[in-house]
Amino acid sequence: MASASRPARAFRTARTLRILAAALAITSAVEVLTGCGKSEPATTADGKTVVRYQGTTGQVTPYELAADLGYFNKISLHWEGDTTSGPANIQAAATKQIEFGSAFNGAVIKLVAGGAPVTAVLSSYGADDQSYTGYFVRDDSGITSARDLIGKKVGVNTLGAHHEFVTREWLHQQGLSDAEIKQVQLVVLPPANTEDALRKGQIDAAALGAVFRDNAVERGGLHPLYTDKDLFGKFDYGTYVFRNDYLKSQPDAVADFVQGTARATRWLQVTPRDQVVARFESIITKRGRNENTGLLKYYRSSGIPVPGAVVEDREFQVWIDWLVRNGELPAGKFQAKDLYTNKDNPYSNGKYPAGAGPSGEAAAAK
Hints:
five-stranded mixed sheet; alpha/beta; 366 residues; three-stranded antiparallel sheet
């Protein structure tokens, strides 16, 4: 028994050191850039604070929607390019290439644990009845349970983020031991290639969400073994984070970003789908980035079940508990409430009723 536990501890220790090293590298970069970066952000001719961000090709984020709806009063968004993943996005924010980033809450916890000075201010993505990630297997695979995945390969978009956490949590909830869970191999693949790898038998299960999930379902021959919605129901999985120094030096800009993005999220939650898609198509066309609007036909919902994207303790606590159980975080080091703030969200700070519409009005049924 003891000989089995030592390798397990060594595995967890090595994994923790890799995570901390990455987080500390980001922190070091922040410290270097603090000395050479601008002391004040740029402003527009009419005095608005310029807030730099990374977008997503062919999609419209809630903050881009907020700008188009006229919900920002004190900030002006400036696109710096597109992001490829949550970890890359939050690293760009931590190193002052942009002002904020969106990441899976488990990744946010790990970065903060490693010393990265960021705080979550608003939920950025999640799972609801229509938008979620499914973990698919082939209909002829013979895989019907968590135990069938032992010794098999699961395709995910990156390690240390949403897909890995959900997979390992599901395996744990299904009764697999830590040793058995370690035998389920996670294989990193670009989302655009994951379905093909599954169909060719190069992997045994695949994380598919949004357009990739819908395309796979249309083609047939696959079904979900589990989904993130199966685990937690309607749940917010990620948040927008700002650097703590920016929160202190530019509180008005952050407050404007939060209130506008919260209202735009609420607009998505209460507006009929055809109107949302039409608005998105208009925004993509106007911004002139030579993007394909064809993906918009797969839009289902905001994916955020909480009105106005208000952050809740449980959305961080579940991953704190996971990291502690997995030996990657000391027990008691963090409390969920210390990792985020809702103070600027009008659906949390008392400005609007929790179920109100995007301008505080009574929300109409969708």
